[in-house]
Amino acid sequence: MAYILSFLTEIFSQPAFLMGIISLVGLLALRSPVNKLLTGTLKPILGYLMLSAGAGVIVANLNPLGGIIEAGFNIRGVIPNNEAIVSVAQKLLGVETMSILLLGFIFNLAIARFTKYKYIFLTGHHSFFLACLFSAVLQAANFKGWEMVIIGGFLLGAWSAISPAIGQRYTKRVTEDGGIAMGHFGSLGYYLSAWIAAKVGKAENSFADTEISEKWGFLRDTTVTTGIVMVVIYLVCSIVAGSAYISTITEQNMVIFSILTGLQFAVGVAIVYSGVRLILGDLVPAFQGISQKLIPNSIPAVDCAVFFTFSPTAVVIGFISSFIGGLVGMLMLGGLGMALIIPGMVPHFFCGGTSGVFADKLGGKKGCIIASFIGGIFLAFLPAMLLPALGNLGFENSTFADFDFAVWGIVIGEAFTHFGQIAIYLICFVLVLALLAPFAFKSVKVVGDTLSYDELMEKDRAHK
C-alpha cells in the first residue's frame, strides 16, 4: 500500500506525466487514431520537460546572483526559496504532504466534474509545494493524521479550482481566449497586477504591440534582449561584489563569468519558449475530448511560464521592475524592524515576469512597470509576514516565495492563533459556499469559453 501511494503521488507531482496522461485521456475520448495518440501524448510531456530544462538553466544561472548581491551590498537576511523550505519540511512531514497532494488532485477532478469550476490544475510541482505548506501550517494548528490529510486535501483541491477562476477574465485577455487558465500559485499576484495596470495604464500602448525601428532591430529577438539585460545586471553586481568574492564561486574571469552567465540565462528562456509551443500545440486540442466527453467545459490550468510567449518583452520588464520593488520592500522591512527579505531572483523572474505579461496586456507599458514594481514589494512583505508561523516549526530563515503560498500560510496561521481550530473549519466552509454559490446565480460564469481544435490551430499558425 505504501509503495502504491508513493508511486501515485510521484506521478501526480510530475507535471510532465500529468499533462501526458490528461492529453491521452482526451485523445482517447475523441477516438483519435493511434499515430495521433502517440504524438499527442508525447509532445506535451516533451514540451514540459523542455520547459523544465529551460527553467533549470534559468534557476542555475540566477542562484549565484543572490549571493553576489549579498556580498556586494553587505546585506544579510532571508532569501525566499520554495524548493529549499520544501526539502526541509519533507523530512518532518513527508507522508502527510504526499497524502494531501494525492487527495487534493482527486478533489480537484471531482470539483471540476460536479461544480461550475471547470479548471484542472496541471502544475504538479506547485501542487506539491502547497500541499507541503498546508501540512506545515495544519500541524502547527494541532491537526494530525487523517483529519490533517482530509482538510489539507480539500483546501488544495478547492484552491486548485478556484484560483484559476478568480482571474480568468484577465487570463482570457492575455491569451486572447486561448483555452487555458492560470495554474500557478502566484495567481493572486498576477491578478492584482492586472487590476492595478488596468487602473493606471492603457492596454493599447503595450510592449507586446510595440514596433521596434530597424536601427534597434536586434531587440526584436527576445533571446538577444534578455541576454543583453542579464549580462549588464551580472557585470554591475559582480563589479560591486569584487573579484575576490567572484573567485569563490567560479574560476573564470569576472567579466567572462558575467557574460557567459547572462547569455546562458537567455538560452534558458529560449528553451522555455520552445517547450511552451510544444505543450500548447497538443495539450489544449486534446482537452477538447475531456471537455466534450468526461468533464464538460473543462479547461487546463497551466504553469506561469506558458504565458511568457504572449508578451516576451514584458517578461523582462516585469522581472526588472519586480526586482527593484523587492529591493525597496527590503529597505521598508528594515525600517519597520521586520526580518529582511533579500529579493530572490527566481521568484522575481517567474512571478515578476508573469505579472509583467498580465499587466502589459491590461495596462500597457505604464501598467506593466508600475504593477510589477508593486508586486515586487508584496514579494518582500508577504514572505516576511509568513516567517513567524514557519519559524515555530523549526523552519527559521526559510520561507515560501510566491504570493498564494504566503497568503494561505498567513491566513491559516492568524486564524488559528486568534480563534483556534474552529477557524480552520470555517475557512473550509467558506470554500464550500464559494464552490456552490454559482448554482444559485444562473448569470454567474466561472469558466471561460474554449476554442475548437480548428480555431486553436488557426490561432497557432497566426502566432507563428
Automatic annotation (TrEMBL):
<dbReference type="GO" id="GO:0005886">
    <property type="term" value="C:plasma membrane"/>
</dbReference>
<feature type="transmembrane region" description="Helical">
    <location>
        <begin position="12"/>
        <end position="30"/>
    </location>
</feature>
<protein>
    <recommendedName>
        <fullName>Ascorbate-specific PTS system EIIC component</fullName>
    </recommendedName>
</protein>
<keyword id="KW-0472">Membrane</keyword>
<comment type="subunit">
    <text>Homodimer.</text>
</comment>
<comment type="function">
    <text>The phosphoenolpyruvate-dependent sugar phosphotransferase system (sugar PTS), a major carbohydrate active transport system, catalyzes the phosphorylation of incoming sugar substrates concomitantly with their translocation across the cell membrane. The enzyme II UlaABC PTS system is involved in ascorbate transport.</text>
</comment>
<keyword id="KW-0762">Sugar transport</keyword>
<feature type="transmembrane region" description="Helical">
    <location>
        <begin position="146"/>
        <end position="166"/>
    </location>
</feature>
<feature type="transmembrane region" description="Helical">
    <location>
        <begin position="224"/>
        <end position="248"/>
    </location>
</feature>
<keyword id="KW-0598">Phosphotransferase system</keyword>
<feature type="transmembrane region" description="Helical">
    <location>
        <begin position="254"/>
        <end position="280"/>
    </location>
</feature>
<dbReference type="InterPro" id="IPR051562">
    <property type="entry name" value="Ascorbate-PTS_EIIC"/>
</dbReference>
<keyword id="KW-1003">Cell membrane</keyword>
<keyword id="KW-0813">Transport</keyword>
<feature type="transmembrane region" description="Helical">
    <location>
        <begin position="92"/>
        <end position="112"/>
    </location>
</feature>
<comment type="similarity">
    <text>Belongs to the UlaA family.</text>
</comment>
<feature type="transmembrane region" description="Helical">
    <location>
        <begin position="367"/>
        <end position="390"/>
    </location>
</feature>
<dbReference type="Pfam" id="PF03611">
    <property type="entry name" value="EIIC-GAT"/>
</dbReference>
<keyword id="KW-0812">Transmembrane</keyword>
<feature type="transmembrane region" description="Helical">
    <location>
        <begin position="422"/>
        <end position="441"/>
    </location>
</feature>
<feature type="transmembrane region" description="Helical">
    <location>
        <begin position="119"/>
        <end position="140"/>
    </location>
</feature>
<dbReference type="GO" id="GO:0009401">
    <property type="term" value="P:phosphoenolpyruvate-dependent sugar phosphotransferase system"/>
</dbReference>
<feature type="transmembrane region" description="Helical">
    <location>
        <begin position="42"/>
        <end position="62"/>
    </location>
</feature>
<keyword id="KW-1133">Transmembrane helix</keyword>
<feature type="transmembrane region" description="Helical">
    <location>
        <begin position="326"/>
        <end position="346"/>
    </location>
</feature>
<dbReference type="InterPro" id="IPR004703">
    <property type="entry name" value="PTS_sugar-sp_permease"/>
</dbReference>
